[in-house]
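Comment on this:
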Amino acid sequence: MKMKYLIVFALFFAQASAANENKKELDVVVYRSPSCGCCSKWVDHLKENGFNVKDVVTEQVQSIKSQYGVEKEMASCHTALIDGYVVEGHVPANDILKLIETKPKISGISVPGMPVGTPGMEMGDRKDAYDVISFDKDKKYQVFNHYDSGL
């Protein structure tokens, strides 16, 4: 009987360890301007979806974009780093999870601009169609995911 409890405890401990290991992968650093309210809403979206966010408020957001190869075509209002990838703009948490799970050979993903209805850019029921775009250091862009409009 004691052996049965020992096995159950060992399995529980192994699952807890695996969950903690996965949680480490959800550490994200977000660089955003102090004057941008939608950025803090996107940070809240990440936290609500299990990410451990280090929120860096800085006036140097443009230099961060340059440092990590975010071209003008891919730019938005904030830049995040997770698991070796760049996440630019109002990218939904599910797309970030897909990125770190599939580990494609790209630099990162972006929602260029600030489309209405993206996480942090909610405006009632209005939702613009938008794409999450993958990009690499050679300026190769591809649709990573597409979202239809809410109308």
Q: What stands out?
A: The chain has four helices and seven strands. The first strand starts at residue 27 and ends at 32. The chain has one domain: 27-147. Residues 98 and 104 are 10 Å apart (CA to CA).
